[in-house]
Amino acid sequence: MVTAFNPSSSAEIRSLAADALERLGVAAIGTDGDVEARSPITGLPYATIPSSLTAEDAAIRAAEVFTTWRDVPAPRRGEVVRRLGELLRLHLDDLATLVQIEAGKIRSEALGEVREMIDVCDFAVGLSRQLHGLTIASERPRHRLTETWHPMGPIAVVTAFNFPVAVWSWNAALALVCGDPVVWKPSDHSPVTASACNALARRAATDCGIDPDVCQVVFGGAEVGRSLASDPRFPLVSATGSTRMGRELAPVVASRFGRSILELGGNNAAIVAPSADLDMTVRAITFAAAGTAGQRCTSLRRLIVHESVADELSDRVERAFARLRVGNPLHDDPLVGPLITQEARRLMENALDVARADGGSVVGGERMFADQAPEASYVRPAVVRMPAQTEIVRTETFAPVLYVMTYRELDEAIALQNGVPQGLASSIFTTDLREAERFTGPSGSDCGIANVNIGPSGAEIGGAFGGEKETGGGRESGSDSWKAYMRRSTATVNYSNELPLAQGVVFE
Ligand code: NAD
After folding, report:
1. Residue nearest to atom 13 of ligand 1 (CA)
2. How far, in Å, is the centroid of ligand 1 from the Cα of 326?
3. Whole-model pTM?
4. Mean per-residue pLDDT, 237-265
5. I need a labelling partner for 246 at 20 to 30 A (CA). Which of 131, 278, 504, 508 fits?
6. Domains and CATH numbers, the chain
7. Cβ(347) – ligand 1 distance below 6 Å
8. H and E: helices and strands count for the chain
């Protein structure tokens, strides 16, 4: 569907951001700061902000503030997170506007991202009264054996461009209730959004009588991420981004015996079985593959369809993609906004060329609105029918490209689904209970997320989020992910008058 495109100017974007920041009460943007803010909506810079701290200064302050923050009772730490949740509710609209400007998201998804921050704050507040340890039966008389969880230390959080605030909040809300100060290095695509969220977190701390340096932000690219990774003052580095980034960062953290939580690239698939409800499946596939312009770590990239329904489903998905409104998220009420950079578009075009050379047939994928927004990258999402799972299909291309392959037996479909280096999200569309259970069981999907009758993207915060293999193995957000932000202490207390040794050892 070709729709009218209404371009934005940098002046318009600057004014929208300035108004939002004013209502947020956050230091204004200007034109003479040293951190450049760009928008994928135009593909151009729209303002600058002053750089904040250096990573070194932030580490010093975080280490200092930890010495008092760790002794604040966890439920009181939870009050800071509750206040943050209140401030996020109050400023939901303005933060969503900043997310739109810096990540190019459509309104509904930008609002959803801010709501996700609010959800995780609510979750963490409850958690602040439930950081339970264990009491374990001791083999020795009048001995008490316990495991307790203690604050770990300052946490460095490195985030990707595509969830410019939600991923920080998954880490920050949990780290704060766990007693850890947070130093955040956001993507260099989203300094303004990050600056606003961090300012709200600092305000929340101040409102609760807590040193605001429990939350700090440092700007910069890979070099700043590297310096946080190598700094022993951060016992934990939580890093979200490409597998390439994780491959560089993880050994640096490990070489100093730090811990990392890695949330890296995905290459997510959906299996469509003969019994699938195709109406529901087409809708789910379209959102999962084309939503967020294919720029979610959990975006659907591979469709593995039973040969009996492959033609019908592929035709329907191609028609659905052709009807998607692509456009300026600030004006056109689209379902698909821009790619983050021209480089991202070039990688998409290159992937489509390779897929064609591998025998794939491509529908969609064209560049759009190049005349009206020459520096931006709007594209029509692409469907590619592939004869086999070639190397390009096994590679994460961070754009709306959906490869379609066919299968005959479920074993073959599961082998294709698992036959990639990444292991983040997966799903099966089936009304056959045996297939659904097989897929989510031990010999089914090898991913961290395995869904039935919904697409692989759009996780709730209640479950632990993350993936296996080259996705990095980290878990964040809900369930017991909080344990990664604390250190475990096992304590044995002898309240007898004897000194019995474990395992019956005698040493008289
Ligand atoms: P990216 O890897 O280019 O950058 C991510 C962050 O890492 C940025 O803040 C960047 O400055 C920093 N960085 C880059 N190299 C570094 C290094 N050597 N040392 C330390 N820090 C470094 O990723 P991106 O383009 O911003 O985001 C897209 C990628 O992120 C995709 O691969 C996507 O799948 C992945 N992602 C994964 C998840 C997840 O939860 N698994 C979530 C969101 C995004």
Report:
1. 222
2. 25
3. 0.97
4. 98
5. 131
6. 10-264+472-488 (3.40.605.10), 268-465 (3.40.309.10)
7. no
8. 14, 23
Residue 468 catalytic?
no
**Contacts of 348 by beta carbon, 8 Å cutoff, 6+ apart:** 339, 365, 379, 382, 397, 399, 400, 401
Of residues 102, 109, 116, 263, which has the active-site annotation? 263
pLDDT at 1 over 90: no
User: Does residue 25 have a pLDDT over 90?
Assistant: yes
Supply the pLDDT for residue 175: 98
> For residue 257, what are the β-bridge partners?
none
Q: What is the pLDDT of residue 343?
A: 98
In a 13 Å sphere around the CA of 6, the CA atoms on its Cβ side amount to 7
**What average pLDDT does the structure give for the chain?**
97
CA dist 248 and 262 (Å) reads 11
List Cβ<8 Å contacts ≥24 apart for 207-210: 207/83, 208/76, 208/79, 208/80, 208/83, 210/69, 210/72, 210/80
pLDDT at 484: 98
Pocket flag, ligand 1, residue 297 (CB < 6 Å): yes
Average the pLDDT over 88-93 and give the result. Answer: 98
β-strands 476-477, 268-272: how paired? unpaired
Residue nearest to atom 30 of ligand 1 (CA): 241
* Stated length of the chain: 508
pLDDT at 22 over 90: yes
Looking at residue 157, the DSSP 8-state letter turns out to be E
- Ligand 1 pocket member 160 (CB < 6 A): yes
Q: Report yes or no: 488 and 147 within 8 Å, Cβ to Cβ.
A: yes
Give the model's pLDDT for residue 389.
98
Give yes or no for residue 465 having a pLDDT over 70: yes
Nearest to 55 by CA among 152, 166, 157: 157
Report the distance separating Cα 111 and Cα 166, nearest Å: 11
Going by C-alpha positions, the residue among 426, 454, 420 that lies closest to residue 439 is 426
For the question of residue 208 being annotated catalytic, the response is no
Q: Tokens 């997966």 correspond to what residue?
A: 426
In the predicted model, what is the mean pLDDT of residues 208-224?
97
Which residue's entry shows tokens 């479909």?
413
Q: How far is CA 444 from the centre of its chain?
A: 24
- C-beta of 301 in contact with ligand 1 (< 6 A): no
Question: Which atom of ligand 1 is nearest the CA belonging to 248?
Answer: 18
Structure confidence by residue, pLDDT tens digits, 130-143: 999 999 999 999 99
Q: How far is the CA of 391 from the centre of ligand 1 (A)?
A: 22
Q: Of these residues, 178, 197, 215, 297, which one is catalytic? A: 297
